[in-house]
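Example record used in the benchmark description.
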Amino acid sequence: MDFWQWLGTWFWWIFDTFVWIAGLILLFWVVLDLFRDRKLAGIWKAVWLIFLLFVPVIGSLFYLLVRGRGMGERWAERRGPVPEKDWKPAASATPADDILRAKELLDAGTITQGEFDALKSKALGRQYFG
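Model output (structure tokens):
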């Protein structure tokens, strides 16, 4: 066996292993979704399981075609609402806006003159060492 035959054999072995594992994961997801579905009657769950037992690849793909949308909805429902972040950084339009906001904070007494100078330098893109 020369190098190219060995490389081809190795490539196909890796590819076959990947497809096999992906098929097992798909089958696991389908069976998991089948048992989590509360609207589907028990007899239909048994029919699906028998179908998946005898033809797992075709059965899994057929399940995704027939019940894929409901499967996605059940996963989203189980996950719950997506939480929004509590803090969102305010995007400033220009450095002048940043300096104006810093000046307002300085006038209100919220920040010191040194902090104002640092914010002004940062807004203008300079390093401040004061």
